[in-house]
Amino acid sequence: MNHKVKWIILALIFLLLSSTNVSARSGVFSDKQTRLNNDAVAAFKAKDYEKAIKYFKQSLKLGEFNLTYLNLGRAYAFAGRCVEALDAYDRMSVAPRAEEYDPNDLYQKLQVYRAELAQQCPGRVVLRCEPRNMEYAINNGSFQACPNKPLELPAGQYNFTVRLEGQTTVSRTEVVGLNTTYVDLKIQAKAVETLLKGESEDASTLRHANKLAAWSIFGVGAASLATGLGLLAYTETSVRNEYNETDNASPKKKDLSEKINNLTFATYALVGLGGGMIIAGSTMLIVDAVYGPQSIKEVDDNDTPSASLNFNKDSVKNV
């Protein structure tokens, strides 16, 4: 007896649970759903959008219909809850159809409502500044540093002005509601190149001065070396011959010996100094040729735009 009662209770529970979704499977609103939807529509017309949302959600718990999701999305939109409105519109596209309403007509309304939602709701704008130290302004507003997080702007056309080191440029882009727009802000590349060239002028002047000094040192060293070698030839020929021809007992012999020693010392000094200066000058020239700064390349207008503001949109996909 208890076993039969148990099965009867389970059967009643199954029938009760099945009845909650039978109207949705059949495409017909239940009486309770009809009352809830009517109450929601009345609240919507009275501009009590939160109450309308409440009734539409209660109706959906009893059974999902495309019409209910469409109405719920509309209520969310008027309540300013843009993301939830978009979610309701997306779910409307795959929800079971209500038999009393033409699905093509509902789909056309969905497209209209989506377009209105895009105009009503703000879009997200991600500014990607290059270089990061430049400033931007929107629609002739005040300049400020590039933001580190996305901006929320109402849908519409916007003028973005960027400036850096006295260089400014203005570009225009469109922000679409419920979309993320990535805006690449790039200041004039040629202006940056010009700044680099200006900063390198002093270094270039110094490099030329160093090169001139290197050649001067090399030249003086060569002259010293040549003088030393000439002095050596004079000592070993003229003075040495005169010393050899002079009588050992003559007082001049001693003077010539001292002269040879002095000339020999001067020769070694000039040769050593000249050789060292030649090595130093040569080293400076080699270092400049191998490790000196490269000349700054001119920017080709065809390779780099004077200014650019490009954007791409990560649009919300329609079902």
Give an overview in words.
The protein has 319 residues and is of the alpha+beta class. 61% of the residues lie in helices and 15% in strands. The strands form 2 sheets. Strands 4-1-7-8 form a 4-stranded mixed sheet, with no helix packed on it. A 4-stranded antiparallel sheet has the order 3-2-5-6, with no helix packed on it. It is rod-shaped and about 150 Å long. The protein has 3 domains: 23-120, Tetratricopeptide repeat domain (Serine Threonine Protein Phosphatase 5, Tetratricopeptide repeat); 123-187, Carboxypeptidase-like, regulatory domain (Immunoglobulin-like, Sandwich), CATH 2.60.40; 200-291. The model is unreliable at 11-25 and 295-319 (pLDDT under 50). The protein has helices spanning 2-26, 31-45, 49-62, 66-78, 82-92, 103-120, 189-245, 251-291; strands at 123-130, 135-138, 144-145, 151-153, 156-164, 167-175, 180-186, 308-314.
